[in-house]
Amino acid sequence: MSTTIPQNPEPEGGPDDIEVRHARLIHGESTTEIPVHQLFRETPDGTHPPLSTSVVGRRLGTGEQPRVRPPARRQPTDLDPELTERPARVLPASLGVLAGVGGAAGCAVVSWWAGFVSPAAARLLELPPSGAPGLGLPQLAAYIGAGTLTLLGFGGLMRGHAGRAWVLSLFGRYRGTIRRTGLMWANPLVLRHRVDVRLRHWRSEPMPVADANGVALQVAVLVTWRVKDTVRAVLGAEDHEVYLRECVESALARVLPQMSADLPGSMVTESLHDIEAVGEALTRVVAAEADPVGLEVFAAQPTRIEYAPEVAVRMQRRRIAALEARHRDTVLSSVVDSVEDTVTRLTTRGLVDLDDYERKALVKDLTVAFYTGRKGDGS
């Protein structure tokens, strides 16, 4: 419970006899709300507690209630500040190939050193004869080093494609994004996620939704989108494609109930027949919801809007009845205009002199004749 305290006139006495009050609490259409339990509360230093300001949305003194604005829709925020795309560190592929070849050559040399090369192969390779076969500690250490060098050299080679990117992570931590093309070398211990960053289209299945009048509809949407921030798309959402589909479904549930499929019979000023306006509204909502996960939505255009199967037959009959009523009204208005024009010409030119009874009879005959003729012509 709160109340509003207007500015009181200055009491009698000098300024030294009264304590200093705050400035006016009413400024145009702004008032200050003070809880009742704090009306006579003062802080130890003699000042009043801070007051919050409330803005009245309509004119004061008109009896209107303040306009309450609905709370803004909260958008998801990044929980991890490291989810920002940055280039990963890569080396030329030639270094990886050189390391792999060197490691393989080292393995061959260690094999000859350990005596695992047959005399025939040694003579073929023009190698001096080795000693008795045996794998000692030095040979084992050399094997491990050469094998590790081979695995690191060849295991780190990777190829980048145009329109695709690699998101690298090491032990659960983001290490960068590779958007380069061609052969390159990266740390073979990192986990690689391939992302398609090309411009893509997604056509939804017919989704159930209701318009402003509660009529059940089925809407299919064509979305044009692409991945803008790879790390948010891969690590910020479990599946960014599924997230996009859910954003489209949520946008349909928020936008279409504000419009009407049958504008003439409703109080809503926006119609679903205006496909361009519907597409713009859907695009704004879907783009705002998909942006936190690094998706850029260019267009979300409905490709098909139709009645749901359970109401399609009834709505089709209603539409046909409305068209027939509109056609009858048009035909009747045309017949009445023709009869009025005919009677007016006959009387103004003095061709006939009619009293009320004769005028009514003539109007009736002309109406029947004109309406029968229009009906016979099929117009």
UniProtKB/TrEMBL annotation:
Keyword entries, A-Z? Membrane, Transmembrane, Transmembrane helix
**Key word Disulfide bond present:** no
Q: Where is the Band domain?
A: 155-319
Q: Where are the transmembrane segments?
A: 95-115, 135-154
Q: Give the span(s) annotated as Disordered.
A: 41-81
Q: Which SMART domains match?
A: PHB
Q: Which SUPFAM superfamilies match?
A: Band 7/SPFH domain (SSF117892)
| Protein name listed in UniProt | Membrane protein
Q: What is the lineage of its organism?
A: Bacteria, Bacillati, Actinomycetota, Actinomycetes, Kitasatosporales
